[in-house]
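Review box. Two proteins, two foldings.
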Amino acid sequence: MTVELEPTAALIVVDVQKAFDNPALGRRDNPDAEANVGRLVAAWQASGRPIVRVAHTDRDGGPFAPDASEHAFKPVVADLTPDLDVEKEVHSAFHGAPDLNAWLAGHGISQIVLCGIQTNRCCESTARVGGDLGYAVVFAADAMHTFDKRGPDGTTYAAEELAEATAATLHDYFATVVKTSDLVGDS
């Protein structure tokens, strides 16, 4: 599926941080996620479209504390000079600082493309809020990853299952779910 991108479509790169490399988080899906994030970033830089980079921060300490080495961005986006850096302490990038919604509206942006970590948490939350705010949300599902998760009854759900459930839930309601190649072509 080819997606028509608006000239001002903003790429929002969510939480591509070293803290997510911690083995204690468990098994992840999609080993190609970071490479696909890189493909999207390169395409946006080449087109001159805006890029927003988001970082999760936990002021109570741990790997997401601002002074923790793991808080840093992964190499794929570490040297990026985005149009906007957003710091958030909750799941959705729309609840961070500076105010993402105000920035997008102030720049006349009505379409956003999401990629990053975790598919079913911060990426999904950002998609839902963005959709509710009226943005045309594009969810680049193969430029994301998540982790296995144990449910309340003790059942462990594979990361792939969680990612597929997120895609099914979002598609045609909050977002258009696509692959990276739908946005940048096959390469």
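Next protein.
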Amino acid sequence: MPLLMPTPRAEPGHGDKRRLAVIWLAVALALAGLAAWSAIGPGSYGQSRAGCVTVTIPSSMGGALLHECGSRARHLCQRAVGRRDRLSLLIRPSCRGLR
């Protein structure tokens, strides 16, 4: 009859629980570090400067970045100055440093 009895389950020991806690702590710290880095770092399109214009505009998926440099940025700003539509009004403040 002893062969028909189910085998007892092995319960995790203190070492296994500690290892699992360390793994969860490492994952939580990595995610917190990633969140802090993404919140603090502006990225390459942070602001309009050095002959470039960066504007966040409304889009079908929420918002989009409009980024132009050099002659394309000057052309974009010239078009925005001559118009009174909503997009032009959003572009104008970023063009102030370009002039």
